[in-house]
Amino acid sequence: MKENLVLLGSTGSIGEQTLDIVRENPDRFEITTLTARSNWQRLAEQAREFGADSVVIADERFYEPLKETLKREPVKVYAGAEAVEQCCENGSVHTVVNALVGYAGLHPTVAALKTGKKLALANKESLVVGGDYVMRLSREKEAPILPIDSEHSAIFQCLMGEHAPIRRLIVTCSGGALRDLPREAMADVTPEQALRHPQWHMGAKITIDSATLVNKGFEVIEAHWLFGVGADRISVIVHPQSIVHSMVEFEDGAIKAQLGTPDMRMPISLALLFPQRAHRPSERFSFTDHPALTFAEVDREKFPALDIAYDCLRRGGTAACTMNGANEVAVAAFLSRRCRYPDIVGAIRHALEHASWCASPDLDDYAAADCEARALAGEFLHL
Known about the structure:
The protein has 383 residues and is of the alpha/beta class. It has three domains: 3-147, NAD(P)-binding Rossmann-like Domain (Rossmann fold, 3-Layer(aba) Sandwich), CATH 3.40.50; 152-314, no CATH class; 316-383, Rna Polymerase Sigma Factor, Chain: A. Helices cover 44% and strands 15% of the residues. The chain has 15 helices and eleven strands. The protein has a seven-stranded parallel β-sheet with strand order 4-3-2-1-5-6-7, sandwiched between helices. A four-stranded mixed β-sheet has the order 9-8-10-11, with helices on one face. A hairpin with a 4-residue loop joins strand 10 and strand 11 (255-259). Helix 10 packs parallel to helix 12, helix 13 crosses helix 15 and helix 14 crosses helix 15. The termini are far apart.
């Protein structure tokens, strides 16, 4: 029997690579629903190829052209954020792959978990924003969360079969596009510079987050919620080659690491097929092609966002939600050349300094914190 999948964010980088895995395993998976934010043309192409039962376009402006394009296909067409959530509640669906970007992924994550679905999670913001709520819901509903982020997939694999106490999690970091840029040049960074990631091919938003190390800070928060390890026992280390995806150190001093090429299809396939692994004969790693694996400390003065994320994790409540909301506004402004690179961290700091804070938030509190953070970031950036 095939496993029915809902794929949220099917036209993005993770979505497209998830469909690669489905293509490689046609006897294992059936696409039930595909969703996209605005790329209705690509969504229509995917719906035809995979015979999706339904598609959802989050931006309602594109509902009519999508519906017109698919009018001769046996596929239902929906639009809007609420429809994205509702497709996660489909009783015939086994697994939801959440490859959405940003705060928009939180409510679909909640919808999937409430109905007991297996959740293959690439949307780290679900845990950054609402980790306490999401993990409690996962436990209550016995709905498993399988991480797609390469770092968290690596830690997950290192912990498989282990019962020994953890000393620390070691999250590796490529350093992003600006790793080797002198500090004095950071103020003048352009979007083109920040988008040139040396190892990974990703969407624009996450590539900028990688350049600022906001993404790495968010991964520390995500690791805390997924694995129950405190901030003081999660380390970040720069590893430019992106071969060691992360490590776990145990109390006896032993360290386990997961290695592989920088290819997101590996963690995606594990999340979909677990406890089995994919058969990918073309995937071969050569140590002689990578004779030097190097590591270095993060320059925390050059990349202050990492420590800001640690502070948000220690503070708890809505702090990380505020950081995320401000960051989303600032990154969008930077990509559209409405602010300078240093203004991203400036907007985050401004929001955290002036936002209200809730110690034990529910979904409404997260929504309020997100809205306030966006307004404060806009105020700082004069948008």
